[in-house]
Write a structure and sequence with these properties.
A hairpin with a 4-residue loop joins strand 2 and strand 3. This protein has 92 residues and is of the alpha+beta class.
């Protein structure tokens, strides 16, 4: 069985928020990078830094929908403004 990268990201953030942790570590992939950029832009996380040696993201801080569209990964608000549809990746 394959891993669900998106669910792992959201679960890690949710668990850290519930435990009031300041830092979360997640593996770095193309999907992860796009989702982290959206979360940062939307204000769900405060800062991000990529650890070069382990290739992981570290971010801190904490309702959007993230979609996969023909124009890339974006929020539901951005997709509505561009009048395009897509597949729902996750709800935050």
């Amino acid at each position: 069985m394959g891993r669900d990268t998106i669910a792992d990201i959201i679960t890690s953030i949710r668990n850290a928020d519930m435990d009031r942790k300041v830092t979360v570590r997640i593996a770095s992939t193309n999907i992860t990078e796009n989702i982290v950029k959206i979360l940062l832009r939307e204000g769900f996380i405060e800062n991000v830094r990529k650890h070069q040696e382990s290739n992981k993201y570290f971010f801190g801080g904490m309702g959007i929908v993230i979609l996969s569209t023909s124009r890339g990964i974006m929020t539901d608000r951005e997709a509505r403004l561009e009048r395009i549809g897509g597949e729902i990746l996750c709800y935050i």
